[in-house]
Amino acid sequence: MQTLTREEMARLVAQDLPDYSSVNLGIGMPTLVGRYLRPESGILLHSENGILGMRGLEGDETPDPDLINASKEFVRLVPGASIFDHALSFGIMRGGHLDVTVLGAFEVSSCGDLANWSLGESDPLPSVGGAMDLAQGAKSVWVMMDMQTRDGSPRLRRHCTLPLTGQGVVARIYTPLGVFRVAPGGFVPVALVAGATQDLVRDQVEGDLAWPDEIAVISRQQKEAA
Amino acid sequence: MNAFKSKRCELAEAVADIPSGAAIFVGGFGGSGIPARLLSALCHESKAGDLTLINNNAGAGDPSFNALVDTGRVARIICSYPRMPGSQNIRRGVEQGRLVVEVMPQGTFVERIRAAGTGLGPFFTPTGYGTAFAHGKECRVIDGKGYVLEAPLRADFAFVRAALADESGNLIYRFAQRNFGPVMCMAAGVSIAEVQTLVLPGELDPCQIITPGLLVDRLVKG
């Protein structure tokens, strides 16, 4: 069985984002999604520091110190972009004006709790940033994450063991095995890589796992065509 | 032309009356909008200590911000995301007990400042409900949604950076340099802006002004 790379996961997220939606990509893996957005999708990317409508630098474009995203990477504005202050930017987030946020995660529970900001150790510099505002405020919270920790503990769990970012907020999860929804019955596979059997998935998930009759297969061809 | 009082001053003069124990808003997100000249003046032209510096990224590695920390003049940093390249000294300061770093969600950080500047009292926000940031705070469920009560956050001074100003203090920012500037200017006792270009009143298009001059007390050019 061939699992998805981070780039393939990012490509799947990019395909699934609704056309003309406003989207915030969190720090880390989610920033990869920006590379796979088609200009004709009309998606506008939002950044905490007061930008709506941006893209990564292309080719030899010169960085502008006053155009950075939340990850402090240099960006460019796209036609139709707007700039606003931080209070308005977080008002947009908390106020439910963003369609989707894509976040990284350490753990997600089967009732949609998200833990993505702290490993729970006594960190002298705990850094939460905008994660909680996004988790709480975006209309739909999608997560890109691994199925398991390096030592094999599940990251999709009955209850989160790490400090929470938000309660009951996660709608969709993109993992190397495929895509899950979070529903009242627990984790629901939507599309899985070929060879991801119920036993195999069950083995990597701790919380309630539904197994619908229809689960799409993510094939190599589909990935290449994307 | 209507008379105006120029708010322009020299860097050293701009920070001369900042006393020990002052709380200072420092604008900027990452390196964009960091008032590096004002931080440098505070570092080199003033001896004020026991300072509270309020900046989203705990200075984001700015050399003067770090020098203030390294020379023991900062007692407290209030921020949302201190884990930045170049913040090892802040980590050491906390580990050695010389420095207190207070962290909160970024939207709560900015809204507490906005509340202070716009005359509001404590407010209920859904951000952080059911998390560690709600501990010890009043929480309430209103219409089925949980909220945490947060207090306004004021400071004695604000340091912000803008691209363009007129001498009466009207500010225009360049792209995402704007970030915390507008709210911090409203919530500080004395707001000081460092600006790249300074013109006379009347030379800026009033429709383009982001921070009106009555919210700005001093201007330095640089």
Features:
heterodimer, A: 226 residues, alpha/beta, Glutaconate Coenzyme A-transferase, ten-stranded mixed sheet, three-stranded mixed sheet, 5 helices, 18% helix, B: 222 residues, eight-stranded mixed sheet, three-stranded antiparallel sheet, 6 helices, 11 strands, 27% strand, globular
Structural class by helix and strand composition of chain B: alpha/beta
Instruction: Estimate the strand proportion of chain A.
Output: 25-35%
Order of helices and strands of chain B: HEHEHEHEHEEEEEHEE
Beta-strand content of chain B:
25-35%
What share of the residues of chain A lie within helices?
Answer: 10-25%
Note the gap between the termini of chain A.
Answer: 20 Å
Main sheet of chain A?
10 strands, mixed
In N-to-C order, the SSE pattern of chain A is HEEEEHEEEHEEEEEHEH
Global mean pLDDT of chain B: 97
CATH-level-2 architecture of the domain at 18-103 and 154-221 in chain B? 3-Layer(aba) Sandwich
Number of strands of chain B: 11
Beta strands of chain A, count: 13
How large is the count of helical segments of chain A?
5
Using the 3D structure, state the CATH architecture of chain A: 3-Layer(aba) Sandwich
Can you identify the CATH class of the domain at 18-103 and 154-221 in chain B? Alpha Beta
List the helices and strands and how they pair.
The complex is a heterodimer of chains A (226) and B (222).
Chain A: H1 6-16, E1 22-25, E2 44-47, E3 51-56, E4 75-83, H2 86-94, E5 100-104, E6 107-109, E7 114-115, H3 131-137, E8 140-144, E9 156-157, E10 170-175, E11 178-183, E12 186-193, H4 198-204, E13 216-218, H5 220-225
Parallel strand pairs in A: 1-2, 1-5, 5-8, 6-9, 8-10, 12-13
Antiparallel strand pairs in A: 2-3, 3-4, 6-7, 10-11, 11-12
Chain B: H1 11-15, E1 23-26, H2 36-45, E2 51-54, H3 63-70, E3 74-79, H4 88-95, E4 100-103, H5 106-117, E5 123-125, E6 139-142, E7 145-150, E8 155-166, E9 171-172, H6 181-187, E10 188-199, E11 218-221
Parallel strand pairs in B: 1-2, 1-8, 2-3, 3-4, 8-10, 10-11
Antiparallel strand pairs in B: 5-7, 6-7, 8-9
Helix pairs in contact in B: 2-3, 5-6
